Each structure stands twice: as structure tokens, then as C-alpha cells.
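Protein 1 of 2
SEQ + STRUCT:
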Amino acid sequence: MTTSESSSLLAHGGTSESSRSRSVSTCPSGTVFLVCAFAAVGLVTNIIDKNNESTHVVGMMNRVPMMGKAGKGTKSSHSKVDEYDCESDSSYSKHTVKTAYELPFAALFDDNKGQKKFEASSVTIVDGSVYSVCDSSFAISKFDDRLLPFSEDNKQIGSPERDGDVESGYEAIFHHEGMFYVVRESVLHHHHDDDEANEQEEDEDFVKADKQHSFHAIIEELVLGDDDYTVQSECMCEFEFEGTSKGFEGAIGFPDASGELYVLGLCEGNHCSEERKADAGHGRVVLMKKNTIPDPDVPGELNCVWETVRMVHIPKSADFIDYSDIDIASDGRVAITSQENSAVWIGAAVGIENGVIDPDAFEFDKDSGVTYQFPKSNDCDTIYCNIEGIHWMNNEMLMAVSDKMKGKGKQDFRCFDKDQSIHAFVLP
């Protein structure tokens, strides 16, 4: 994120107290509720001071179970879940972000280009416009951050399909110097184009790496127009995953002092692993830079690749079962979400100043982290079950997007109301 982008984001919440108060107090009874809600957002209280120093609060990890088929409070399969009672928590408001406003994706677009599902996976804000991707579509969603229903400013850029396929696998989007970067989570690559490889690819149960196949994320560079986009390049990430799942779930990019772009890829599973994914509190970010290497199959040809610079550990205070997205502001403020824990970790990074990264010095401040849970239902049930994308709106507000709820009884019916939606949250 550049300094100019950061200034644009902060402007969203920069209205004076007096003008906010007038906006709320003079709102006529017949005005649409959303308009009043937008004006009221400006009345929130800062939790991070104006010097952007980390706020040290004793956070409480969300341990509310995401119920499955039984619908009777069945705990998640992992052993980290403990019962949590909202009513007995006298500091609930200090442990929980507050919903400011939200809207389903289905209510954003006058023309949804035939899409009936929006498996939202990432979100970013550039010059006051929100951009989001879904892993179920190749189209890029663009809309105003006020989330006005069916506004002419809300549109789908590009076709939802590419080469007859609608499953993009897009898990992250960020912007740098006029270019949008989108990340495809974990893509199958052939080492040898032989009959055995083709046979295994056709096997739907084949998901693990072997001698003929490996799994790598792909980063696409896109130039967006008003109605369509152009793919400038598609470059493989050097980092190898164990299979089709638990690849990169989030990403953010920063230039170094010389202008070279570095990308931080957030692994979904703990240890960046499928086998050890549930070993909570072992999150990892892969720091990468772009390079070219010889094509092993075509002599004299070069391929672009995002080389691994090093692995960066997320502090253990982000004690999550999974990691669904990351955003880092130009001053080093960090937000990392967990879908399974229905929580967000707020911390700080060193080695980033004014939107410029020092790749040798970058790390997360181990003493800065605090975890907040997403709001619960009146019965203290988890309802924000599928938060997959996060982005700083300003110092005190976050924008998030939610994936489609899992079917076939994998998630409780209470997860349905908030799925396939975009949300604005206020930090305590």
C-alpha cells in the first residue's frame, strides 16, 4: 500500500465530530436506514492512538464452537475449542469488534453477470473504491465503500468465466502502482507431460503432491479497465505446498527502498502445512520477490517466478486454527483473520515505514498482538463463520468479506445469514 492510498483510506473516517453529530441528529424519519448508519459510523472511539502506537489489551481468543449437523452446540473437531459464555463475560465489548454496516454481495450489483454465488475471499480499497475477489469467479468486484445497494458505481469487471471455468481459486488481491495482483491459492503443476500424469489429474481424489506433480500458488498481474481487465503476467510462486488446499489465503505487497516489490503470502494452515494445519498458533508468512529462471522444458526460454526470500513467523498470540487473510497498513499496523476461530488478530510489524519494506528487518512485533472476536448472536453462537478477507479502512475500522457457508451439514444454519457478504467493523 502506498502512502497516497493510506491517506485516501484515512479520509473515509475523517469527518469532524460536529458535522457527524449534525448528520445523525438531523436525519429525517423517512430516510433510508443505511444513510443514517453511515453517518453514525463516524461517532466511534479510537482504540489506536494518533501516534499509531500499539494498544496493549488482554485479548480473549474466540472459542465459540461452529456447530455442525447436530445443531445442538456440537463442538468443532479440533481440541482447542472451549465453551464461551457471552453473558458471563463482563468485558464482552472489549473483546469483540462491532458491526458498523454490511450488505450481501447479491444486493450490490444491478448486473451480476449471471452469478448466484459469491465465495468472497479477499478485499482491498484503492482511492475510495473497494475491490474484492471470489474463488468462484474470475470477475473482479468493484463498489463504493458506503455499500449502496444496486448502485451504478458497483460493477463486476471482467467475465466470471475464463476458458469455460468459473473456479478462479482467487484468494487474495492487493494493489501496487496501478497494477492489481491476485493470488491463486495452490495450483497443480506437471513436471512431466506423460500419460501417467494425465491419468492422475483426471482422478478427482488426487490432491497430494508426488514425483510428477507439485502445487504452487500463482500470482497474476492485472490491469483493470472500466468493464474488463487484462492479464499482464502469470508467475508461479517457488514455495511448494503439499496439495490443493491450505495454500496462500492472503497476500500484501510492499516495495523496498529501491522500488523492488516484495510480496507477503499468508499460509492458511499452521506451519504452512496440510498435515500440521491444526497445530494452532504456528502461523507463517512467506516473503517473496519476483525473478526469472530458465524454463526446464524449453531451452533459452525464461519463466517468471516469485522466489522465496524467507519464512516469517506470526506471533503465538495469534493462536488460530487457520489463517484466512492479512492486511498491513503503510505504518505497520497488522490485521490477520481466522475463519475457523471467527476472530481477528491486531498487531504491528517492524521493517515497514511509510509503505516501504526492509526485507531483511521485516518481522511481526511479538509484544503487540491482541485478538478480538467477531460478534456473536443473542444466544452467543458464532454467526460470522466465514470471514476470508480483511482490509484497514482507517485506524479504527476494518472492512471484511465472507465466503459462502459450507453445505452438507459442515456448518450450522446460523452461519447462513452473514455468508457471501461484505462487512464494516469497528474495533473496541
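Protein 2 of 2
SEQ + STRUCT:
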Amino acid sequence: MPKEYVDEYEPLLVRGIKDKRRLKLPNKSLLLAVFAACVGGTFQYGYNISVINAPTMYVQNFINQTWMQRYQTNISQGGLTLLWSTIVSMFTLGGLIGASVGGTLSVKLGRRGTLLANNAFSLTAALLMGLSSTVGSFELLVIGRLLSGMNAGIALCVQPLYLGEIAPTALRGAMGMGTSVFITGGILTGQVMGLKEILGKEEYWPILLSTTCIPAFLQLLILPWFPESPRYLLIDKGDEEGCKKALRQLHGLADSGDALEDIEKEKNNLVGFQAKKPWELFSDRSLRWQLLTIILLNIAQQLNGINAIYFYADYVFRQSGIPMDKIPYATVGTGACECITALTCGMLIECLGRKVLIMGGYVLMSICCVFFTLTLTFQDYSPVFPYLSMVCIFAFILSFGLGPGGVTNILTTELFTQNARPAAFMIAGSVNWLSFFLISMVFPFIVTGLQQYCFLVFLAVCSLVVTYIFFVVPETKNKTFVEIQNEFQSSKRNKFCSSDGAGTILLSTSI
């Protein structure tokens, strides 16, 4: 047997003993590449989610004034609500469109190329929303939000791909946390920019909505200085020299050899296989557990109650005696809380592992659901309960950021090899955006029907996810993509087949 294949046929237990990977500090060039990818990627997703909240009243006044100028009558309350809901929800529709094409673009244009091209949507959106007040057209806001959503959908699909493929195996989790850190950073920045002391005044709302162009310009200035994904260059394009050059820049000369060896093994493992389409993943029985896992985790990420917590935050802050004009500052506190936990998760993920963090996060969220239900039920019995509710809000956000908020995207990267990964992100992204849309449509009815007991529904979701992860999802820390595939294959295979005593692990679940 050729020597280059020997390691792949060894049992994972033996390989684990031989593995000498060490956790090292990332190369400065690698950190800058992560920043460049994230600042114009998922940072914009978080920013556009939160920045629309501050100017709500001002945009509604603009819609009413524009309607009056056009039709010489005030718009009905129902019509105003419908138009505002359309402006907000277009972001979700755009995200779904972006997620459905992001994987295909990442194969055709490359990971870095897609991220750079994606800025066209952001810049166009910023221009349209910035001009909407000047030209007196609220339709430009609808189109702008749709384009912002498309930008976010593509970024959420392609950016984790790029981060996962440029990072060394020992730092893949920490680098992958850049997605979550920059989402929460974008949310916090949007909340801060919407304060009255900055751009939260009525005359500034078009400027506020157009500031999404700033991170786009930053990415266009910085990212071209960094290479394409080395895995994409070698496996998809067959550019060995380009791959070596990219690895030297990202990992440094000393560490580029080990990374190249891992990529070459994955390439040998995928000889004769083309990039899969999303529908091909559904028909591939060898990938069904990985696919089921990312679908369930992405559904749970939206249905675990985090949206309900933000919905109730305003009410709880008022009940706690915080003046109405000070509530925006309390809301900034929730954004800062989530940002801090994302950073904490990034520091812990290579020590504790993915499985411990995501399970621990869902367990803590389950506990918070119970306590939040109780504190809301007895809200009027004692002045202490509103403050306990505030504690539950921050504890829930901390738990979400510590596990599900950050680890879900990393697992989507790690559970698939190169030929299936773009399609997996397309499926995961589409499921995530559809779940986002579903919860935004159904949640008001759940709250109306169950009131504070709606958190018992979210308790059930969190508990079921913990059970599934415990029994099905393997730990992926410090493992190559091929090793993770082999572990999925062997763990499911051993349930149905008796061991032949050879201890051999299949080279690929696709072969």
C-alpha cells in the first residue's frame, strides 16, 4: 500500500495517539484574513438585523407623509403596518434567496471571490435606502432590505466555508467562531448607532440605514490582499502552487507542510467526485446523519426561544422601572452581553470542544425557560420578580451565545468534506432562514395563545436537541474532515454490522 494512504486506513484510536497537533497562536496574517472576511460578511447580517429597530417611528412617519403627497389622504393603520412589515420581512426573503445561491457561487467564484462580489448587494442597498427619503419613495426601502438580506444570506453561507477552510485543524473552532463574534458585534454596533446621541434622530434615519456600506468598503479594501481558500485552490481547482503560496501566507512557512498534507489526503479521498448539489445530499445515504444533524440544529437555532426573549425584553425592562427613554440603553446591554459570550465561546471551544459547549448551552437555556416562565407568571406579586426576569433574560442570552449561537455554523463546516460542504451550507442556510421566517409569522400567535407559557414550548425544543446531540453528534475537536466523516460512518455502521476484527475505518463515506 502506498505510504501516503497508510495513515488514512489506521483506526482512529491509533491515529489519536499518534496525533501531535498542538494548539498554537494563529498567524497574524490569518487573523487579518478572518477580520477581512467577517467585517463585510456576517457583521453586516447582525448590523442590518438591529439597525432597523431604532428608526421604526421615523420610517413609518415617512411612509405616511409620502402616501399623503401621492394620494392626498392618510394611509390606514392596517396599510401602514403592512408596509412596515414588508420592509422588515424583505430581509428574511432576501436571506433565503442568498442562502439558496451562496453555495453555487462559492464553487464557481471561489470563497473569497464570492465574498467580494457579494458587496455589490450591500452597496446597492445602502444607496437605495439612503436616497429613499430624498426621492420620496418607500419602495426603495423594500428593495434595499431585500438586497441587504441577499447579502446576509450569501455571507452566512460562504463566510463559514472560508473560515473553516483557511484555519489550521487545531484552530478551526476558534477561527470559525469569527462568524458568531461578528454577528453579535454587528448587532451591538447597530444598537449603538441607533442611539439618539449618534444617528438616532429623525433627520438622520436615511444615513443610519445607508451606513451598511461602510463594512462593505472595508472588506473590498482589505480582503483582496489575502488568498483564496487553500482547500478550494487544490481540491476544486487543482492549483497546487497557489495552495502552497496561500498556506505559507496564512499559516507561516513552518506549519504549511502539515496543512498541505491534510488537504492532499482529502483530495485523494475525493478523486473522481464532483461538487455535490443540494438534492444529491438528500439521496446520499452515507450522509443522512450529517444532513439530519445540520437541519435539526439550524431549525433549533431559530426555534429555541431567543427571539421570544428579545420580544419580552422591552416589557420586562418597563416592569423593572426603567424609563422609556432609557430602554434603548438597556437593549444595548443585551447586545453587549451576547457579544461577550461569543468571544468567550471562541476562547473555550478548543479547550472544551464543540459537543460540550452546544449541549451545555441548550441545557442552560432549558433551565432559563423554566425560571423565566415562573418569574413572568408571578410578575405582579412582588417587585423582586421583574428583576429576576431581567436576570433570566441575560442568562438566556449568555447561554445562547456560549453554545448554539456559535457552534452550529462550525459543525456545519466540520461534518462534511469539500465536495459536499457548499451544498450542505445551502441547505443549512435555507432551513435557517425558513425557520426565521416561520417563527416571525407564528410567534405572535403563540404568545397570544400561551402568553408566558410559550417558554414551555421552547423548553421542549431545547431538551430534545440536547438528547439528539448526546446520542448522535460526535466531538469534532482537533479532527480532520476525513476523520470526522469516518467517525460518523463507523459509529452508525457498527450498530448494524458485526466487527470483522480488522479495525479498519472506511476511507470515505462517499466511496
